[in-house]
Design a protein that fits this description.
Number of helices: 5
Oligomer: single chain
Low-confidence stretches: 4-21, 277-293
CATH superfamily: Ribonuclease Inhibitor
Helix content: 10-25%
Number of domains: 1
Strand order of the largest sheet: 1-2-4-6-8-10-12-14-16-18
Number of strands: 18
Order of helices and strands: HHEEEEEEEEEEEEEEEEEEHHH
CATH architecture: Alpha-Beta Horseshoe
CATH topology: Leucine-rich repeat, LRR (right-handed beta-alpha superhelix)
Shape: elongated
Structural class: alpha/beta
Mean pLDDT: 89
Length: 294
Amino acid sequence: MKNFITYFCLLFVLSISCIVNAQIASSEKQYLLDFHKSTNGDHWQNKWDVKTDPSTWFGVEVEDGHVTALKLYRNNLTGSIPAGISNLSHLKTLNLAFNILEGNLPKDIFKLEKLSVMRLEMNKLTGKMPQDYSKMTQLEELSIFNNLLQGEIPGGIGEMSNLKSLNLSSNYLEGSLPTSIEKLGKLERLELFGNKLAGSIEVDLGRLVNLKELILSYNKFEGDLPSGLATLSNLEFVQLQGNDFRSLNSLLRMQSSKLAVFDSDDEFLNMKFGATEVNKIRVVDTKYEDVKRN
């Protein structure tokens, strides 16, 4: 009998603990409800039953009483991302890619200090990128390609010290490449295809020692390509075509033995590094692949 009572008490305590752990702060739940309303949740592909616990909602992950992930990839979200997302202060992954979201990025979206992945690609987001990224020291992936963003790439982007992948391709970004990018020492992928970026590249690309993919094609860059690019030994994928570079001669000393794809407007270099017609269309194939990640 004593053992039975002990077992029952233990079971009761565990049940209460599970219920408590499933609950989230009222401010976090309220933001999720605001988000649901602002993005027309009644028309989502995978809908939420807002009368149930948020931990049961599609794409919401909860740990220790806090929302740690919001994964609503290709879920027919429309409307806009509402302000107040910083209430999800424990968020690590935000994946809203392949939806029909419009409007500006909320100003507080780059105050999520624990965020490691932000994927907003293939939407219709507009406006300018924010200036301050000082809170984003944990971010490793920032993907906002194929939206309608305008203005310059902010210099503050170099504050994201753990960033490994930056993809801003297929927007309407203009101006020069900020020199602060050279501070992103962990960067492996830099993809800026199809914007209006212009001028000489003053970034010391040689400092991006972990860079594997560099896609600058179809912008308005000019002048000489920085010589430091030739020293990057981990490069695998390079696309430079569709710009107004005066000279690519610095690449004659390219040191990477891992280079698989190289495209430029210099046919000699294309031949030297083995570019093919198949390689020339790869930028389209890879930038819009429908692969569900994170």
